[in-house]
């Protein structure tokens, strides 16, 4: 189970860092300037800039994953459930983003795989915790 835990830790670290790296420019430049993200991508969403999506990304997938990462590293009770929950949050983020953009791009598939890894490892870790 140690290998499964380290896979979860790596996925959480990767997600936390990349979510923060993606969210900060959205918050600092909410009209998409640094990455040339046109505001037309938001036409099917309730947002008029990238500020609110950036804040949600920062909190839900950036800060939250780092908190779950801390719990996994410190072997806090119930951390497997939190790993799986973080995978569900990421899957929900992808589903909502896909629905609002009305198109799929390669990061959707990549982070979809990361969400499945988190859910699978979290459930395996939870099962292992219950067996003890």
User: N- to C-terminal separation?
Assistant: 12 Å
String of helices and strands: HHHH
Oligomer: single chain
Question: How many strand units?
Answer: 0
Percent of residues in helices comes to: over 70%
Shape: elongated
Report low-confidence residues grouped into runs of 5 or more: none
* Beta-strand percentage range: under 5%
Rg, Cα atoms, Å: 16 Å
Task: Tell me the structural class.
Answer: mainly alpha
- Give the tally of structural domains: 1
What does the main sheet amount to?
A: none
Question: Count of helices?
Answer: 4
Mean pLDDT: 94
Model description:
This protein is mostly helical. The protein has one domain. 75% of the residues lie in helices and 0% in strands. It has four helices and no strands. Helix 1 packs antiparallel against helix 2. The chain is elongated, with a radius of gyration of 16 Å. The two termini are 12 Å apart. The model has no long low-confidence stretch (mean pLDDT 94).
Précis, in short:
With 132 residues, the protein is an all-alpha fold. Helices cover 75% and strands 0% of the residues. It has four helices and no strands.
Question: What labels would you give this structure?
Answer:
single chain, 132 residues, elongated
Give me the secondary-structure topology:
Blueprint: H1 2-28, H2 51-73, H3 79-101, H4 106-131
Helix pairs in contact: 1-2, 1-4, 2-3, 3-4
């Amino acid at each position: 189970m140690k290998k499964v835990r380290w896979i979860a830790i790596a996925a959480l670290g990767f997600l936390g860092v990349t979510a923060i790296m993606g969210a900060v420019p959205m918050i600092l430049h909410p009209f998409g300037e640094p990455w040339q993200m046109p505001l037309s991508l938001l036409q099917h969403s309730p947002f008029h800039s990238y500020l609110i999506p950036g804040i949600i990304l920062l909190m839900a997938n950036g800060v939250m994953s780092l908190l779950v990462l801390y719990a996994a590293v410190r072997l806090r009770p119930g951390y497997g459930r939190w790993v799986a929950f973080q995978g569900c949050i990421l899957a929900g983020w992808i589903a909502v983003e896909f629905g609002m953009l009305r198109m799929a791009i390669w990061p959707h598939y990549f982070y979809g795989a990361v969400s499945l890894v988190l859910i699978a490892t979290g459930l395996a870790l939870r099962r292992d915790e219950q067996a003890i």
